[in-house]
Amino acid sequence: MTDDRAAAETAARSGRATTTQRFVLWIAILGSFVAFLDGTIVNVALPAISDELGGGITTQQWVVDAYLITLGALILVAGSVSDAYGRVLVLRIGLIGFGIASIAIAAAPTAEFLIVARGVQGAAGAFLVPSSLALITSNFTGAAQSRAIGIWTAMTTSAMIVGPLIGGVLVDLASWRLAFLINVLPIGATLVLLARGGFRDTRHPGASIDWLGAALCTLGLGGMVYALIEQPNLGWASPAIWLPLVVGAALFAAFLLRQRSVRSPILPLDLFRVRNFWTGNVATAFIYAALALNGLVVVVYLQEGAGLPATLAGLASLPMTVLMIVFSSRVGTLAGVWGPRLFMTVGPLLMGGGALLLLTVGTDFAYWWQVLPSMIVMGAGLALTVAPLTSAILGAISTERSGIASAVNNAVARVAGLVAIALLATIVGGELDLDGFHRAAIVTAALMIAGGITSFLGIRNPPRPAHAGPTDATPGS
């Protein structure tokens, strides 16, 4: 046992964190905060970006999806990269890469340049959250670890509040470009803490990385998403659409086939034999596709359709975020007693109802009567859903595989959002006017309801702790 690990266990027994642990916690918080902050800022900045660089709704889709393609594909391989090269080194590379990409985005002369930089930023971001969590789990034990993860969750979730506010203010008073430069501040602080922390990195010499699988996944997703985004402009008959779609689908199929035989798969397919795991991930796909669609459509329409400034448009969904932050931990406790099935059913259905309330938005816009009720209802549904969903998925898999299970679920959520945004032009009918906004609300509601029905039919409550068996559920149970 290393000296650091022994110190961590001593601190866990005493209830006090060591100096190294405090450094680790702040590094994990700031490193992840960067990725969460950027995700909330970008939606607020989309109208200003397309106004300056051109491209309309297609540019807006690519600005979001270029990031999600590389993030969703590479987040699966991040764990094995951290094991092979060390978590601190990988986190440092991710931070530097994210910072350089952020500066490139802020200086982008064209939409095409910005989109490429967003792809690089997504690749760097893929290593921030997994590496941050890995630092916590390797430096904290027992109750101290649970507390550290709780603090990490609360602090990083706060990015959902400050992101739209900071982004909106910068867009309104200065430039959307400064909204991306704001990332440089927490990145710089994290790099300083990494240099002063004084803790040793850990590597596993036997770890292997499936780079070919990662390439197949990235290129496959990229080809299919390109076809879905550009199809409304070129039509299905164009070789520039059906060829990338076919090649992308073939590459992604090759990726899945490779995962069945490769020694260290980045997507272990055997996990999907566990009922709550695969059902929970199907529900995740529906729910997070709906959240991604709703998050982009609401903030963009409130600026372009309702005429709100970026700051107010970014703050429109604040009630939803606050409700989730306030009640998620309490719901998680109740789900531990009653089981996740009820919450995973009622929560998405409630969010579906909240999405339908957006149909009240009309030409005579009034936030307080047309949008706020939807945000409150959706926030209540989100608070009921998130913690039980995570608990159901990770609780179905043995503890030693929880890292890869979490990465898979995270990737499913990102790819679901990626596909939803890629289909945006098709969903809204080519233009995000009032009719397109209503169509998006109906699709959002349908996806949420599908997530609730999937949970009701597929999720099984685990046995009571007193009678619980092994952590890893029996396949197909």
TrEMBL record:
It is found in: Cell membrane. Its main location: membrane. The chain crosses the membrane at residues 23-46, 66-82, 89-109, 115-136, 148-170, 176-199, 211-229, 241-257, 278-302, 308-328, 349-369, 375-399, 411-430, 436-459. It is a multi-pass membrane protein. The keyword Transmembrane applies. Keywords: Membrane, Transmembrane, Transmembrane helix. Residues 24-463 form the Major facilitator superfamily (MFS) profile domain. It comes from the Bacteria. CDD domains: MFS_MMR_MDR_like (cd17321). This is MFS transporter. The lineage of its organism: Bacteria, Bacillati, Actinomycetota, Actinomycetes, Micrococcales.
